[in-house]
Amino acid sequence: MLIGLTATPYRGHDEAETERLVNRYSSNRLDSGAFASDDPEDVVRELQGMRVLAEADHGTIEGGKFSMTPDELRQSKQTPWLPESVENRIALDPGRTQRIIDAYRKRVDPDWPTLIFATSVEHAQTIAALLTSKGVKARAVSGSTAPSVRRRIVEEFRTGEVKALVNYGVFREGFDAPKTRAIIVARPVYSPNLYFQMIGRGLRGVKNGGNDRCLILSVRDNIDNFEGKLAFSDLDWLWA
Questions:
Q1: Contact between residue 55 and residue 41 where contact means Cβ atoms under 8 Å apart
Q2: Domain spans, the chain
Q3: Does residue 87 surpass a pLDDT of 60?
Q4: CA-based angle 65:71:76, to the nearest 5?
Q5: N or C: which end of the chain has fewer CB within 10 A?
Q6: What is the DSSP string of the chain?
Q7: Are 54 and 48 in contact (CB under 8 A)?
Q8: Bridge partners, 57 (sequence order)
Q9: pLDDT tens for residues 7-36?
Q10: What is the rounded distance in angstroms from the CA atom of residue 93 to the CA atom of residue 106?
Q11: Is 3.40.50.300 the CATH classification of the domain at 58-234?
Q12: Least confident of 29-38, 151-160, 166-175, 231-240
């Protein structure tokens, strides 16, 4: 007997990989017949109607314009993320960072628990510091944050003491804070799987311990010599 449980039962845009995953389980789905339709978009809408998933309100934040070197372009084909050198250049754009802060202050209710995905460790720390300077209790965490410190900050976020939790490289999965009311994706994401894992932190509905609605803001960067398409651009069907 082989049972697989996953929140992302597909392999991005690679249909052949998805088919191999399906065949691994002999096309036998435990949720077969549980919904009116097996179409993933219809299933999400049905769960939203049941208030198991939250309605998703979406907006964009103007990013920056960048380009990659030939070597960085080669690296980009080997990972779902942009090369670290590119992400660091993006993170160091002061105008882009300021627009993220402005969008938070303009569009996010200060009482909403907000999860922010930054572009680098330094970027996470900068955003947290700038929000703190504006009177928002914000904290930054990354893979280098000591586990005990991370646990304490996450608990403060869950209880509402910390309003903005800014992270780099963590909290895509295995992170449970059902009252998260807003998410800012400030890191360029081209993989639908990764993007869904990130915004899924805020899509818990009322019947699942969460909220009726979740605000999701995505930074729209332009990398002029890169053909990748930002993941959120294919999700018009999801946004309320």
A1: no
A2: 58-234
A3: yes
A4: 65
A5: N
A6: ------S--S-TT-HHHHHHHHHHTTT--TTTTSSS---HHHHHHHHHHTTSB-EEEEEEEEEEEE---HHHHHHHTTSSSPPHHHHHHHHT-HHHHHHHHHHHHHHS-TTS-EEEE-SSHHHHHHHHHHHHHTT--EEEEETTS-HHHHHHHHHHHHHTS-SEEEEES--SSS---TT--EEEE-S----HHHHHHHHGGG-B-GGGTS-SEEEEEEEEEEETT-----GGGG-TTTB-
A7: yes
A8: 215
A9: 666 666 677 888 888 888 888 888 888 899
A10: 20
A11: yes
A12: 166-175
Choose among 166, 174, 186: nearest CA to 103: 186
Block residue for tokens 């929140």: 7
Q: Is the pLDDT of residue 121 over 70?
A: yes
Q: Taking the model in full, what pTM does it have?
A: 0.90
- Which residue's entry shows tokens 């907000």? 114
Q: What is the mean pLDDT of residues 79-87?
A: 90
Confidence (pLDDT) at 1: 79
* Alpha-carbon span 216 to 7, nearest angstrom: 19
